[in-house]
Design brief:
This protein has helices at 3-15, 18-25, 29-43, 59-83, 97-102, 104-114, 127-135, 197-208, 222-230, 240-248, 278-286; strands spanning 48-50, 55-57, 92-95, 121-124, 141-145, 153-167, 188-192, 214-219, 236-239, 253-254, 263-271. The chain is an alpha/beta fold. It folds into 3 domains: 3-83, Winged helix-like DNA-binding domain superfamily/Winged helix DNA-binding domain (Arc Repressor Mutant, subunit A, Orthogonal Bundle), CATH 1.10.10.10; 92-159 and 266-286, D-Maltodextrin-Binding Protein, domain 2, CATH 3.40.190; 160-265, Periplasmic binding protein-like II (D-Maltodextrin-Binding Protein, domain 2, 3-Layer(aba) Sandwich), CATH 3.40.190.10. Strands 3, 4, 5, 6, 9, 10 and 11 form a 7-stranded mixed sheet that branches. It has a two-stranded antiparallel ribbon with strand order 1-2. The longest helix is centred in the first third of the chain and has 25 residues, at 59-83.
Length: 291
């Protein structure tokens, strides 16, 4: 088994088609088939189920795929390091929309002062997409809120944030303090998109109290939700770090919900098989994550 075998296997896994994989790798289809057969013979298992118009990974194939992603990536990093000694490495960071808007710029400013030779690549997206990118080794680390959904991902806390219920400044809810949860049954909620960390925490927290919000809006944009609340379209529950300016300007107002604590844990995630390079170790140290 060689790195070449693993590269071919990974390309086939991505394309799910031998002809397409051969075209991308600039080799013949028989060469692709031979490499796969050699891999299966090496480990004594079937890696792929071959159907007329598609390929599907077996359980053994899924297992090899997870390891191969990181083995090939680590090999490429070694090659780049040995061929270009002046390069100090790279860092690929994912960030949820909330953390990317509020905390990440400060982290990267401090990181650049400590590691001036590293230029981090940043992907800001929803938590579920970041998890998939961690699993496919398209990111080294990611900063998200809330839970992870794969046993192949390591998750460690690095901070905490408060989620704040907000409404129009003239809303009748502000006459009560705190607001009974049942009172909110009449209200429409403006929510982040499904699978966002913020929404997941809001819904799971409210569900503990047997409350399901009536969702009127869904948006990936916190600004759009703030604008909707400011126009009196509905109420929302948003990260405190992202609504400070709107609160200070009086565009929206905050209130408390009786008996409900809305906090979220900020977490840094990585693949459990991920080799941490010096730049990645440096970023973890910056966040004071103990391993």
């Amino acid at each position: 088994m060689t790195i070449r075998h693993l590269r071919i296997f990974l390309t086939v896994c991505k394309e799910r088609n031998l002809t397409a994989a051969a075209r991308i790798l600039y080799i013949s289809q028989p060469a692709v088939s031979l490499a796969l057969k050699e891999l299966e013979r090496c480990y004594g298992v079937r890696l792929l189920e071959r159907f007329p118009h598609r390929l599907s990974l077996t359980d053994a194939g899924e297992n090899l795929y997870r390891y191969a992603l990181h083995i090939v990536s680590l090999f490429d990093e070694m090659e780049d390091s040995m061929k270009n000694r002046s390069a100090r490495g790279s860092l690929r960071i994912g960030c949820s929309l909330s953390i990317g808007s509020s905390l990440l710029p400060g982290y990267l400013h401090r990181y650049s002062a400590l590691f001036p030779d590293v230029r981090p690549y940043v992907m800001i997206n929803s938590s579920d997409i970041l998890e998939r990118m961690i699993l496919s080794n398209d990111l080294d680390l990611a900063l998200i809120e809330g839970m992870v959904h794969s046993d192949d991902i390591l998750s460690e806390p690095f901070g905490e944030d408060e989620l704040v219920p907000v409404c129009h400044p003239q809303h009748p809810l502000l006459r009560q303090s705190p607001v009974p949860l049942l009172t909110l049954e009449r209200e429409f909620f403006l929510m982040r998109e499904k699978n966002s960390g913020t929404r997941e925490i809001v819904e799971s927290t409210l569900l503990i109290h047997n409350f399901i919000p009536r969702t009127l809006w869904e948006s990936t944009s916190t600004d759009a939700i703030i604008n909707g609340v400011a126009e009196g379209i509905g109420i929302s529950i948003l990260p405190g770090t992202l609504i400070r300016e709107a609160l200070a300007r009086g565009r929206i107002a905050s209130f408390a919900i009786e008996g409900v604590t809305l906090k979220r844990q900020l977490r840094i995630i990585r693949h459990k098989s991920k080799y941490l390079t010096a730049p990645a170790e440096g970023f973890l140290s910056l966040l004071s994550v103990r391993r």
